[in-house]
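note to self: the first set is below, dont mix up w the second
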Amino acid sequence: MASTARTLTRIALGGFLAFAGVSHLTVARREFQAQVPDWVPLDPDTTVVASGAVEVGLGTALLFAWRQRRLVGVLTALFFVAIFPGNVSQWTHRRDGFGLDTDMKRFARLFFQPVLVLLALWSTRRG
């Protein structure tokens, strides 16, 4: 039962990441730019495109990289950690995006990032 739950979680997480990555590259580029911290040395659009490409890659790998799924889980967890400052920046600079139009909504979102880290690791665990 736990194996099935992990597999379904991994598939959902992979689909979510791939979809989000494609959104970075297409319809939601402006929304994602609101999350880019001011201290990132790249242009916000370049940052969004690069992170979108990484998300598409990680999402696809979560869906199809069966033999390397543990490594993909660790890389996905590290990616979620790496983008967390963007969520903090969006909150501290009061930037709207994706319906996060109040300080409370932006703050509440911060607590979902650790959950994503744990899901990435848990869903790619063997056994």
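second set (the one i keep forgetting abt)
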Amino acid sequence: MKALILAAGAGTRLRPLTDTCPKPMLPVAGRPLLAWTLEWLRRYGITQAALNLFHLPDVVRDGLGDGERYGMRLHYAVEDHLRGTAGALHNFPGFFDQTFFVIYGDLLLDFDLDDLVAFHRRQRALMTLALKRTATPHSQGMIETDDEGRVLRFVEKPATWDGGDTANAGVYVCEPEVVTHVPPGFSDFGHDIIPALLHDGAPVYGRPLRGYLLDIGTPEAYARAQEDWRGRAGAGIEH
């Protein structure tokens, strides 16, 4: 199986740390965040990952290499201008030829990916979003689903929201057809692609994740990541 890891962001909220290190490569418990991500993905059978890069790309490539140490093969594309979370798919023509994952690169993860995939296949979904709960809907992609998990409504960072506390967690399972819905140039999953798929009646589903997920994108969250992951360095991501 394959994955796209979105690793192009500058991480401005974590400056000055990200002035010299891309956010996905910041150390968590003594190791780069992406090292934990790759080990987690490999546990679930992902053997190839594509990474889109923009901010300090050499730090990522030099730090991760070809992926062999993680039991994976890594593919890199350096963007000369940002293409967006969905536009990044077009950096890798022909790569997404099977069910694949999209992972936001600033996430610290340890949840049951097999459960998400099984749900995706059972629902015959085109795209399945991992879901989480949030108390800050204005900063999240907010989602409403029916009793079967089909997404009825999705609004990226709404000014007001009356649809509950379920949010986009930043991990997707996608069928290859999703790539054909992404136009050339810049496009974003939250602002552009997911709303367009829903408008077209495509089978987009959501599944609450089972396990741990933390966006490290603020100083407070980054400090929490260090606390949560204390003691894991040198022992892999397994509990």
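remember for set 2: The longest helix spans residues 33-43.
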